[in-house]
Structures are given as C-alpha cells and as structure tokens.
Design a protein that fits this description.
The protein is α+β, with helices and mostly antiparallel strands. The longest helix is centred in the C-terminal third of the chain and has 28 residues.
Length: 350
C-alpha cells in the first residue's frame, strides 16, 4: 500500500512538472538572471484604458509575495522557481496579452560542447545536431540579431527530434562559395528546459565544418605498373569540380599477408584483395569524409572480372555472406573431386 502511494505521488509530480514546462517558444517571454536580486517588470502588451487584472498560470493573483502591481505593470522581485510561468493581462473576460517569465539556465558549458555542425559542400546550407538531452525546445539563429535577442532574428526550428533527445537542423546561409571566406558565422542557440532557458553563441568559418560525403569508386584498371583507381566526387559536392577539387586517399589490403596501407596516389600496387577510399577538400585541411564500403579487387588474367571491357579488374561490392558461400562451394567441390578419385582408384583395384 505504501509503495502504491509513493508511485502515485511520483506520477503526479511528473505530470505537474510537464504541465508547467514548455515544449515550444512562447511569442513573448522575459528572462530573469539567476542569483540576481534586481526585480523584473512585466507590462501589459496591449494599450488599453482602465484597470487590468493579472493572472499567473490562469489564476487571479491576490496578495502574492514578491509580486506587486503598479497600474498596468507587474513587478516580480527575487525571481525563483515558484515565480516562473505564464503571466497574463486581462480586462474583464478578455485576455489582452501573455508573457512567460523564465529563468536563465545554470549550464555554463560552451555551445560547441553540445552542438555539432557539418557542411557536405560549400553550397548554401549546412546541418547541425543538438546533442544535449533534457531540453524540450531548441532553436538556432544565424546573425548578430539573434545573438542580441532582437525581434528581427530569423529563428530556425528543428526539423526533427532524435531518439536520444537531441534535435537536428538545416540552416541556410548567404556566403558565396566563389569568394575567399573572411567573415565568421555567428550561430546562436536558445533551448528550453522546464521553465529555464539557455542562450549561447559560437562563431566559426564555414570551411571549418566542411566534411564531404563519401566519394564514389568508378572503376579499377589493371595496368603494367599497378592498379589505377578512378574516383568521382560525391553527388552532394560543390560544382564545378575543377574549381572545388578534392584530395582522395585509398586504403588497401594485400593478398599475401593481410597488411593494410594507404596512398594518396590513384596508382596502387597489384596483389591486393580489397580497397576503400575517402576524400577531403584539397585546398583547406577539412575533415575527411567517411570511408566508402570495402570493394573486393581481382587482378591477374585468371581472376579478372568477366566484363566486356577486359581491363576492368575491380569488382562491385559483393552481397553480405557471399564470400563465405563461395568458400563453402569451393570446399565442397574439392571434396567431391577427392571422393571421385577414391572411387576411380577402387574400380581400378577391382
């Protein structure tokens, strides 16, 4: 019975917390600084003649500690958790305006510790992921207006919430990809947790967050000196490719000893069993792309792939488990030959 009562009390506490929390950004809100004794003044957002009534979370305010009404304004002193929430201004049964009183978040970490941004090219958009859980609403802005909290800021809301509690965003920018980048981007984030709000700003160059998608292995051509690998940029990379060049890196495994090496040259040694590639901006030391999946390579006349073009020697990706299936077939075939030899020997003996 005691356990059941505790469970009910805990459930009610969760429900009440969610009821007073916010999962969106209200149109009007005021942020009180934490551990600041200065009072906060709220004003009725609509000009009206006569007396007005203030309500807190829908209830009329009567003799509330630390709250004083002066005409159409309301002053809240010693702001703390019990004072946080929605303050609405009424004239009779008509709601004139509403303002949320929020508290500055106590989080003191820098913004880049819980947000990561990436541009797959120098085109006009890049993506960001908010990785910190516990926040019910997050928005991003890309201008000094957002940093200063001005109404002219064009906020970008999340286009999806991640399973781990994070948020993802797609942000447009106006930087020209053909001009040397001299201006840093100013990214401001606002995040709400219960009735607290976090606001942080960080600056960076677009080139600092460029990470191409994985490139494409077009073909592998066996030549006298080695295997020549042809690589195309990813479809998402900026064009023309002659201007936005990429540096490629090839990783390959030798057949004989399984040793793995890397090369920045398109010409790699023969006698390799598989390879994969990755890319990055050739002019800026940007982050490498993810590796492509391993591709199996066959070289030599006996192992050459059966293509119309006889110089092609790099096979497409094999389906999962296909190598094990091939090995099993070869083993069974070898066993059948041995069995057939034994039968022939017995017949001769007879």
């Amino acid at each position: 019975m005691k356990t059941s009562s505790l469970w009910i009390c805990g459930l009610l506490l969760i429900v009440l917390t969610e009821a007073h929390g916010l999962n969106y950004f209200p149109e009007n809100f005021v942020v009180a600084k934490r551990n600041n004794a200065d009072p906060v003044t709220l004003t009725c957002g609509t000009k009206t003649a006569g007396a007005v009534t203030w309500k807190f979370d829908g209830d009329v305010m009567e003799d509330v500690d630390n709250v004083r009404q002066d005409g159409q304004s309301l002053t809240v002193s010693e702001v703390d958790t019990p004072n946080l929430g929605e303050y609405s201004c009424w004239r009779g049964d008509q709601k004139l305006s509403s303002t949320y009183l929020l508290l500055e978040d106590a989080e003191d970490e820098k913004l880049d510790s819980f947000i990561s941004c990436r541009a797959t090219s120098y085109d006009c958009t890049f993506s960001c992921i908010w990785t910190r859980s516990g926040y019910t609403a997050v928005r991003l802005g890309l201008s000094h207006e957002c940093r200063e909290g001005l109404e002219s800021c064009q906020w970008v809301n999340s286009n999806g919430k991640l399973l781990d509690g994070g948020f993802q965003f797609e942000l447009p920018h106006s930087l020209s990809p053909y001009v040397e980048e001299s201006t840093m981007l100013e990214l401001t984030a606002e995040a709400i947790s219960d009735l607290s709000i976090l606001r942080r700003t960080m600056t960076f160059y677009l080139r600092d967050i460029v990470q191409p998608d994985s490139p494409q292995i077009v073909r592998c051509q066996e030549e006298e000196q080695g295997v020549n690998v042809t690589i195309d940029p990813p479809s998402s990379w900026s064009t023309p490719h002659s201007f936005f060049s990429l540096q490629h890196q090839i990783e390959y495994e030798f057949k004989d000893d399984g040793k793995i090496e890397r090369s920045s040259s398109a010409l790699i040694p023969k006698r390799i069993s598989k390879l994969r590639v990755r890319s990055r901006d050739s002019l800026v030391p940007s982050a490498w792309s993810l590796w492509t999946p391993w591709k199996n390579v066959r070289t030599g006349k006996k192992n050459r792939c059966k293509y119309r073009n006889p110089v092609k020697s790099c096979c497409p990706d094999l389906p999962p488990g296909s190598l094990d299936h091939i090995k099993k077939r070869r083993k069974n075939k070898k066993g059948m030959k041995m069995l057939s030899g034994v039968r022939d020997f017995k017949k001769q003996d007879v």
